[in-house]
Design brief:
With 99 residues, the chain is mostly beta strands. Helix content is 0%, strand content 49%. It contains no helices and eight strands.
Amino acid sequence: MPNEYTIKIPANGPLDPETLHCSPGDKIIWKNESGDDVTEFTLPTCVSPPRIKLPLKNGDETGDFTVNKGSKGRYGYSLFVDTLMKKPIGPRNGTIDVS
């Protein structure tokens, strides 16, 4: 049975987890806990659908992304948090490690 994982985008520090270990068929959700909007997001190529609706508002979650069948290896992704009047947080990077 596939697992479901949530990757948190915190206000400070790395993504939680910064590297997610998962398997094909698993579901991934990103949750924005940064205090600001995520305005840019380059998804890892191992997930479907290949697009994300932006901006991802503070407190919101993405929909489910499914790790593609046949994927194996490490897939990077990046995102940018727009902090409006404050210093930008980003880009921030993470890795999906599919085994």
